[in-house]
Amino acid sequence: MVDSAFELSAGASDLLSRWLEGLKGLRDASPHTIEAYRRDVAGFLGFLAGHWGGPAGREALGEITTRDMRAWMASERGRGIEARSLARALSAVKSFYRWLAETEGIEASAVTATRSPRLKARLPRPVTADAARAMISDVPLMHDEPWINARDAAILTLLYGCGLRISEGLGLTHAVLPLGDTLRITGKGNKTRIVPVLPAVRNALDRYLTLCPHPATPDSPIFRGLRGGPLNPAQVQKLVRDLRALSGLPETTTPHALRHSFATHLLEAGGDLRTIQDLLGHASLATTQTYTGVDQARLMEIYSASHPRQRKS
Q1: DSSP E strands: which ranges in the chain?
Q2: Known catalytic residue at 259
Q3: Does 191 participate in catalysis according to the annotation?
Q4: Which of 18, 39, 256, 274 is catalytic?
Q5: What domain count does the chain have?
Q6: In this protein, which residues make up the domain named Tyr recombinase (predicted)?
Q7: Active-site residue 282, yes or no?
Q8: Which of these is catalytic: 37, 291, 307, 309?
Q9: Per-residue pLDDT tens digits for 42-68
Q10: CATH value at residue 293
Q11: Are residue 164 and residue 198 in the same domain, yes or no?
């Protein structure tokens, strides 16, 4: 958060805007990621303005010291910022300063040499298979409109049944229809993976598409809001919050927890770890093997035998 007493100087604001525009053009970053970078770096620049007692202009940015960096990190910890969030903000600041060094010739060594805070290992917290099924079954209690209930059940079934990130699910268009036995997903880093589609997923999606009142072209998003625009991730997050409150589930029950549940339940049911890692398309889990190294027949065999939604079909 930018210190309200010290607005960004015109020069700093211009540099920040140019950097963000460059990120949009060069990186496969979502608008949410770009906005997070903007907040983190704007907050850092706001701190510097307060710390230095004046605007953090272009010349001042080149005079930053390791002492300034330590003061910023101490200030963030004092505000209760957790190590993981501070590490993310530091990463954004370093990226900004590397760009400043390349494009403006600004000295960046004090920033780039700053060590990231140590992070505790954070394990995913999946919901149980019964809880996942109960959440989907409770969707009709959330809304009076049948097509919206069908939509909500379809997106949750897709996240859990295919292990998708929420952005991947909401990013699907009618071009992928009709669904076959597999679905090609382009995820983070523009990496493509193939995920099998269970009958339960296909049935939930077919029911929603039958009821959805909005016309569609191949480029139209599958999941639509009330007025026909793309469904907002915040609406899915609110849906899950309401469902977990109804069922008494913990706050760790989020749309992303359904993705972790997908992996955990397959593994617990005897799925092959490497195959599951490839299904997730998660760089931290599968850095040495791409999906093309997995036999597709074996993939479908493991998936069909292991996934709880398949066994219920």
Answers
A1: 182-186, 192-196
A2: yes
A3: no
A4: 256
A5: 2
A6: 122-304
A7: yes
A8: 291
A9: 999 999 988 988 778 888 898 999 999
A10: 1.10.443.10
A11: yes
Angle between helices 83-104 and 10-26 (to 10 degrees): 100
Q: Which of 112, 138, 161 is the endpoint of a domain? A: 112
Q: Give every CB contact of residue 258 below 8 A, 6+ residues apart in sequence.
A: 127, 132, 156, 159, 160, 240
Q: Of these residues, 165, 193, 202, 224, which one is catalytic?
A: 165
Shared domain for 96 and 144, answered yes or no, is no
To the query of whether residue 165 is one of the catalytic residues in this protein, the response is yes
Which of 202, 282, 307, 309 does the annotation list as catalytic?
A: 282
Parent domain of 164: 129-312
- The two tokens of residue 263 are 């992996």
Catalytic residue chosen out of the listed positions 18, 39, 174, 188 = 188
Query: Do residues 2 and 44 make contact, with C-beta atoms less than 8 angstroms apart?
Result: no
**Which pTM was predicted?**
0.56
Residues 213, 87 share a domain: no
Give residue for tokens 């300034």. 68
188 catalytic? Reply is yes
Residue type, 273: L
Q: Which amino acid is at 200?
A: A
Q: Is residue 274 part of a domain?
A: yes
Residue range 186-212, pLDDT digits in tens: 988 788 999 999 999 999 999 999 999
Q: Quick check: is 145 in a domain?
A: yes
241 is catalytic: no
Could you tell me if residue 120 is inside a domain?
A: no
